[in-house]
Write a structure and sequence with these properties.
two-stranded antiparallel ribbon
Length: 103
Amino acid sequence: MLSIRSTLKVYIGCTTADLVFRTSLRLPGEFNSPPNKLTSFYPCGYKDSLRSAMCNLRAMPSQASLATSFPIPFLDTCKFELVQHDAVRPPIQPPYKGPNKAV
């Protein structure tokens, strides 16, 4: 509601809060900002700064770790293996089938 009252109405040259309260409202985000920066708001300049900020955004990697997979050296000499069963199973069934003879 405060932002509706504090937006500049171009056709009257002031905000609704200026007409009702005879002063401008300070929005919660404006308490820590210097007042001279708030009074010099230009929509065209804001558009350009927003566009340049959006052009400078870069994608972040989806995973924080850079760990790579590696082949386990003794898998070449294994005679038996366990095969993971990825289907829906009853509660007591183990997640792996085997041991199966390695090919």
